[in-house]
């Protein structure tokens, strides 16, 4: 069976009765991770792009969360529950 991101193995139980992950899911997740590593090594990570208004509409902030603010044309991240703009020296 060919592996595809469009058709993950939903028909197969993720966890078997013995508590171990299904072999089909192990294979699919391994394929996913390998493909993701290959993609990121070639193209890098993509940071979500949001306006200040869209950013402020986020209801739950998590430390380490990052965006590219399209209003300010700056990278921003959440530190101690507050948006901070990344600066360079």
Main features:
18% strand; 2 domains; 29% helix; elongated; four-stranded mixed sheet; 89 residues; single chain; 4 strands; alpha+beta
Count of extended strands: 4
Distance between the termini: 52 Å
Taking the sheet with the most strands, its summary is: 4 strands, mixed
The helix-and-strand class reads alpha+beta
Strand fraction equals 15-25%
* Average pLDDT for all residues: 86
Question: Could you walk me through the main structural features you see in this protein, from its secondary elements to its overall organization?
Answer:
29% of the residues lie in helices and 18% in strands. The radius of gyration is 19 Å and the shape is elongated. It has two helices and four strands. With 89 residues, the protein is α+β, with helices and mostly antiparallel strands. The chain has two domains: 1-44; 49-85, no CATH class. The mean pLDDT is 86. Strands 1-2-3-4 form a four-stranded mixed beta sheet.
Short description:
Helix content is 29%, strand content 18%.
Task: Provide the fold topology.
Layout: H1 23-43, E1 49-50, H2 52-56, E2 66-69, E3 74-79, E4 82-85
Parallel strand pairs: 1-2
Antiparallel strand pairs: 2-3, 3-4
């Amino acid at each position: 069976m060919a592996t595809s991101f469009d058709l993950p193995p939903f028909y197969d139980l993720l966890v078997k009765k013995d508590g171990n992950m299904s072999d089909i899911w192990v294979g699919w997740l391994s394929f996913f991770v390998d493909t993701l590593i290959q993609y990121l090594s070639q193209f890098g990570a993509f940071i979500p792009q949001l306006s200040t208004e869209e950013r402020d509409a986020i209801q739950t902030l998590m430390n380490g969360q990052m965006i590219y603010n399209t209003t300010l044309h700056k990278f921003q991240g959440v530190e101690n529950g507050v948006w901070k703009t990344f600066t360079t020296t």
